[in-house]
Specification:
The complex is a heterodimer. By secondary structure, chain A is mainly α. Chain A has one domain (18-158). Chain A has helices spanning 18-38, 45-60, 66-88, 101-123, 129-159; one strand at residues 90-91. By secondary structure, chain B is an alpha+beta fold. Chain B has four helices and three strands, in the order αβααββα. Classes of the chains: A mainly alpha, B alpha+beta. Chain A binds chain B through residues 2, 6-8, 10-13, 15-19, 21-22, 24-25, 27-28, 31-32, 34-35, 38-39, 85-86, 88-94, 98, 157, 160, and chain B through 8, 10-11, 13-15, 18-19, 22-23, 26-31, 33-35, 38-39, 48-49, 51-52, 55-56, 66-67, 72, 74, 89, 92-93, 95-100. Chain B: This is Transcriptional regulator.
């Protein structure tokens, strides 16, 4: 039964003892570990994401194809995120808050360089196939970073005090 | 940002509600069924605790339509809830140290 303050009448009213406080903290740590296990990414997730990143970066190098690439990437990303949320029941987009900043930073640098290369191909400063190279490098980087990012996030969750 | 001062929160004195905030505190959003399974409680118990947390302004919920057509409820911690949770945990740590410290 709820009282008017919105706090359940079953709420303990006394300050927890030291042992109770320790048990509560241990329960929180156990929950974080279980949550980390639930965040196991499906095996197809990173290859699918890598393919989408390839489409975006390589497509950026071709003026006539870029709009199609952008639509494919956006629709694919929405589908991926929706599937991930449905399967794991957990979502966390703020990776910097729960660790793994270095992977996000490294991937951002690779992506910026590859988009620059693709842009150079688009403007004719380098041959057109450099856009494909940039797309492949971005896709492979996604494949490399993805699992490591996941592991860092899960490890961070388990170790959160 | 300055961490909240250690203080027990009456809403979070109930262990399951503390666990809900603990799970929500480390990620952005958790789905109702995932949270229910994590805590090992029935739907009705889970709903009751969420209602209390919602009324206290500690969590917010949103419904999203699933493939089955049945909406799924996603829950997230509010900034007020995060602050109360962090202050509560800080106080629990202080209390827990009492038992860990050697007695003379």
């Amino acid at each position: 039964m709820e009282n008017n303050s919105g706090v359940s009448s079953s709420t303990p009213s006394q300050e927890p003892s030291a042992a109770e406080a320790r048990r509560a903290l241990e329960a929180l740590a156990a929950d974080r570990r279980e949550l980390a296990d639930r965040m196991a990414t499906p095996t197809w997730y990173h290859p699918a994401l890598a393919a989408l990143v390839f489409i975006l970066v390589a497509g950026y190098g071709f003026e006539r194809l870029f709009l199609i690439a952008l639509v494919l990437y956006s629709a694919g990303l929405v589908a991926l995120v929706t599937a991930y949320r449905r399967i794991t029941g957990v979502w966390s987009a703020n990776l910097s808050r729960i660790g793994a900043r270095r992977y996000v930073a490294a991937f951002a640098v690779v992506l910026i360089v590859c988009l620059g290369l693709s842009n150079a191909a688009r403007s004719g400063a380098v041959p057109w196939w450099w856009a494909l190279v940039a797309g492949v490098v971005s896709g492979l980087s996604t494949l490399w970073v993805g699992p490591r990012l996941d592991a860092a996030v899960r490890s961070s969750l388990r170790e959160t005090k | 940002m300055k961490p909240p001062a250690p203080a027990l929160d009456v809403v979070l004195l109930e262990p399951k509600r503390l666990q809900i905030c603990g799970a929500l505190g480390v990620v952005d959003e958790v789905e109702f069924a995932t949270l229910r399974d994590l805590l090992g409680v029935a739907d009705s118990v889970m709903s009751k605790h969420l209602k209390t947390l919602d009324e206290a302004g500690y969590v917010s919920t949103s419904k999203q339509k699933a493939d089955t057509g049945r909406p799924r409820t996603w829950i997230k911690l509010t900034s007020k809830g995060r602050s109360a949770f962090l202050g509560h945990v800080a106080e629990l740590r202080r209390l827990a140290q009492d038992v860990a410290a050697p007695t003379s």
